[in-house]
Design goal:
Length: 165
């Protein structure tokens, strides 16, 4: 086996198994459980070895779509980017101005309830390979709490499952 080197300092690093705060997703509070991480003792850098990245991002999209609280700006941005849409393209789908989408994403103005529900359904409809049904999402609409809340999402990439923490 070849030697693993740190991507930051170039010194020897180890592969360990552990939890990783997946900041690269663009969302606060997403933790990947039990993945391999290249950890450098010299500089403290950690590089995750993320299995099945595309499947993982689809699972994260489902977790956001099914979240029992109103969506926050970073979650709206995540869904837009997951769908490979610009702010203008998403605005057109939702029949709002692109500056409105920008305000939602930056938490300058909360998204309205109807627009949020439509966004969840659009993300489900256009998100390739998402493992949930329209009925499951629509059935949870009455249970969505009225306030946007930060909710941590723990993902098991091996089992391809998630839970809210």
């Amino acid at each position: 086996m070849s030697e693993i080197l740190c991507s930051e300092c170039g010194k020897k690093a180890k592969i360990i198994r552990g939890s990783y705060h997946f900041i690269e997703s663009g969302l606060d509070g997403v933790v990947l459980q039990g993945i391999e991480i290249i950890r450098c003792k010299a500089c403290g850098n950690e590089d995750p070895i993320i299995p099945q990245v595309n499947g993982l991002m689809r699972l994260l999209a489902v977790a956001v779509i099914c979240k029992p609280y109103r969506l926050r700006g970073d979650e709206i941005r995540f869904l837009r980017k997951f769908l490979h849409k610009t702010g203008a393209e998403l605005a057109q789908l939702l029949h709002v101005n692109k500056s409105t989408v920008s305000k939602w994403e930056n938490d300058d103005d909360p998204i309205g309830e109807q627009s949020e529900r439509l966004l969840r359904i659009i993300a489900l409809a256009l998100g390739d390979g998402l493992k949930t049904t329209y009925k499951e999402v629509i059935d949870m609409f009455p249970r969505i709490e009225s306030e946007a809340q930060k909710l941590a999402i723990e993902i098991d990439p091996v089992a391809m499952s998630y839970q809210y923490a």
